[in-house]
Every structure is written in C-alpha cells, then in structure tokens.
Please model this.
Amino acid sequence: MPAYVLQNSAGPGLNHGIRCENPYSRINTIGYGSNVAGGVPLSLLHNLKHNHVLHQRVILLSVVIEEVPYVPSEHRVEGHEVGSNCFRVNLHYGYMQETNIPRTLANARYDQLGFFYEPLQISYFLSRKTVVPGSRPGMPLWREKLFAWMVRSSVTPMDFFCLPINRVVELGAQVEI
Model:
C-alpha cells in the first residue's frame, strides 16, 4: 500500500510540502474544492483513503466571496505551487458576481495560476455533507428536521460554481446535528 504524506510545515493549513511516497499516480488534473482558503479539502483525504490515488496535477481550489460587490479580473485569481505539481488556487469574487469557476480559470493567465489550464483535462472533486437529525439533546427535533431539509433544498456546489456536470465527482459524509 502506498504511503501518502501530507506535510504541514506552515501552520494549520496545507501551505507547503505535499509529497507522496510510491503512490499509484493517474495522469490527469484534479481540482479539489476546499471550504477554507489554506485548508486540506475533505474530498482529497477521502479520495486518498478509498482509492489510494494521487493524480498527476492536484489543484486545491478555494472560492472567497469578498465584502465588495465586484472584484476586478486582475485581482480575482491567486495561485502558487505548494509542492510537487500541487497548486493552491484562491478565486476571489464580489458578492454580486456569478461564481463561474471554469470561466474564471479559462480567463486566468499562466502566471496567476502557476500551470496551464486545460478545461477538458480537469475533474472537480467536491465534498458533500448530508445533515441528519441526531439523537443527542439540544435543538428540538422539529428544528433539526427543518434545518436538514433546508440544507438538502439548497443549491448544490456544482450548480453554484457553474461546474460542468460531466466533470464533477462528489464524495460525502453524514453530519449529525
């Protein structure tokens, strides 16, 4: 079995040093969605745990909604290499802008991303959390069920970020409230 080492040499986020020792490697590009700019996406950890695969190019992708209506295109993309063919990319949008990840990446320059973006060579791995009512005391059961229904009824990250349906893989977990 391969040994995967996710080094964390710069604090709580993954900022430097992703390294794989004897991995099974796939030749393509994978973009992992991350809730936190600087964190390790759960979808990356699930993929390593279950599939034992690290792809040729890994993109740790985060979207940051700024407290301004619009972010100019020259300030929208910041990316850098964090390890061996692993890139951290933060996309900045204003709260009035459409969060279209493929369009933003296609319009980004090589010096902004650190790699050449090929739309048909990238797959997006997203984390999906399913909220279920729990048995522990806390909120009344009707509120837990209402909250779980609201989460299920909300727009999916795939739709919100305008990701192509045939390029998305969702890895999920249940969260008990």
